[in-house]
Amino acid sequence: MSDETIRAEAKKALRDRGLKCVIGWSADGTPFFAETEEDIEKLSFNQLCANNLVPYLTKEIRSQRGKTRDGKEKIVVPVGIVVKGCDSKALLLLLNENILSRKEIFIIGIPCTGVADRHAGGALYKKCVKCAMRNPVVFDVLASEKVQEDTRGYSEIEAIEKMTTEERWKFWKEIFADCIRCHACKRSCPVCYCDECMLDPTDIAIRPDTTAEEKAHRPRWVERSVNVPENLLYHLARLPHLTGRCVDCGECERVCPQRLPLRLLTAKLEKDVKEIFNYEAASEAGQKPLIAMSCLEDDNGFIM
Amino acid sequence: MSGNHAAEGADAGLVSCEAEPRFEPKIVAFLCNWCSYAGADLAGVSRLQYPPNIRIIRVMCSGRISPMLVLRALKDGADGVLVSGCHPGDCHYLKGNLYTRRNLQLLRSMIDYFGIEGDRFQMSWVSASEGGKFADVVKTAVEKVRKLGPNMNFKVTDSQDRSE
Fold first, then answer.
1. What's the Cα-to-Cα distance from A198 to each of A192, A202, A220, B68, B123, rounded to whole Å?
2. Domain count for chain B
3. Does residue A1 have a pLDDT over 80?
4. What ipTM goes with this model?
5. What is the pLDDT of residues A185-218, one digit of tens each?
6. Is residue B122 part of a domain?
7. Which residues in chain B touch residue A167, judged by CB atoms under 8 angstroms apart?
8. B71 assigned to some structural domain
9. What's the pTM?
């Protein structure tokens, strides 16, 4: 059983590797930080464990980083994490981007057959019905046997692409009219890890020496007002940041309080990246980021 | 001509069409300092005519153009955006235009996906010696955007505003 394996491996790692904590889920599906061996007994995995825990890990590791008073790098106490297949892809991306270091984390991978939406009567999430990343791609131990994966299809995207420009605009306008810009999609995204976000006008890294003038004159790319153009700009501007980085874990869509189909955006990006550049985010360890590579032979077709 | 009623009607329609002022698009052009801006300069020095619809912003390299600049220009009322840089391989900073090509190709595809006409965002390579090409590029860009009409996707209407 995977629950026992998770607990046994977590306990062993907590003891042997001196982990600070193991980030996992409790039996009711909420994120849970297990810091002691008693806590670890509460770790579990079932269909309700939908959260991607990677953002918690990034936050935890980064809070430990920094310099001591005498200018030395602080020692990071390693942290354990339990990941599903899609979560592990996000983790691999962060490792590739050197945001996390492999020796700072202990990964318990779970081959997953899909998680359920508690708000939809326990039906599987749309992303889980057909999933091409059920098995973790990076892990120290696996909690159970690997499972069969599906292939990724883009039929929904192709349906939208077939619409005329006006139809598409009408389709998206209705969606963006519902967005309340709570920034939950951005906050929960495992690959959005900047301290200061250009898309959130209230999100500014304030140091003790930040002057009032600096705060006032910061470039404001997206205004705070919530209306279709601003929402459109917000979602449109978020995408270039996810180019070749979005691993399609579906957290943005899952956390959206307005139930906007946000994966339609990222999946299109993913599809384009695959079709135009033959690139897939976090498909191997040590991969270079797509937009940090340049190629003279890229397609010139869209240029006048 | 035949002089029948249908032809007269068409003529009358044409007259009333001309009475309305033609839509003059506003296009923001980001030109790289080393090639396209010099190309625009050459077009000016050579007295080549091109439409006055573009507002030029000089940047040091087309690699400076983040998708955000393009989007913000559209949001702030530009009907179109033109980004122009050195030909691939000729970049003053070696690879700036190659990076920007990757980024902006995807941006163009995404804009189109959202139902905003892809032609509102255009890109070209113009070298410092191509004054004639620059004039042509501007002509084509302006014509394409004129055909699309004013940029309405980023306009706020009262019913959309939820801030109150």
1. 11, 9, 7, 10, 25
2. 1
3. no
4. 0.87
5. 999 999 999 888 888 877 777 788 888 888 888 7
6. yes
7. 115
8. yes
9. 0.88
